[in-house]
Amino acid sequence: MYKFLNNELIIKDEKLNIDINCKKKFKKVIKKFQNIKTESFYYKNNLYGPSRSYVGDILVSEGFFLKNREVGIFRRYYMSKELYSIECYKFGKFEGEQKYFYENKNIKSLLNYKDGLLQGKIILYYEDGNIKRESYFDRGSLLKDELFDKNQKIIKEEYFKI
How many helices and strands (H and E) does the chain possess? Predict the structure, then answer.
């Protein structure tokens, strides 16, 4: 649950193990630079709550902040309004699965993080949906890397020691 109403910020996300409930006197700030506009909320000069950025009238990013750090799910968009990414943060660090998409809506990459470090299997895809690369990480260190051609034939495979 992501909720911001009547100066109360509530973020409860079991997947990210986040449970926030704070009530403060937030100040809405709209910043404009050329055709870029950002709508955010602040408390004592720190970003708190929802933040949205626009290019013209097109939403290009949205997410939540707590004490100037990203928290929870951020979504970013292409200018075509198609989804570009779903990023998960835990107090400013990547946490869990990050998803990136091609503009044609096909998955571009799946990355997994733990405490801000790459962890587990990472997959990069060709635009047609076939796997381009699979890598395996342990606490940010690369263990195995495989590259595939467009016909899914392995063209390079490497193993690494920590």
Answer: 0, 17
Compute the average pLDDT of residues 83-88.
Answer: 98
CB burial string 27-37: b at 16+ within 10 A, e below: eeeeeeeeeeb
Cβ neighbours, 10 Å, residue 89: 24
Is the same domain home to 88 and 162? no
Give CA–CA dist 132/109, Å, rounded.
9
Q: Which helix (H) or strand (E) holds 15?
A: none
Whether residue 19 is found in the same domain as residue 93: yes
The tally of domains found in the chain comes to 2
> Is the CB of residue 109 less than 8 Å from the CB of residue 95?
no
Residue 15, domain extent: 2-105
98 and 32, same domain (yes or no):
yes
Residue 152 pLDDT > 90? yes
CA distances from 138 to 45, 95, 100, 148 (A): 37, 14, 21, 22
Confidence label for 82 from pLDDT (cuts 50, 70 and 90): very high
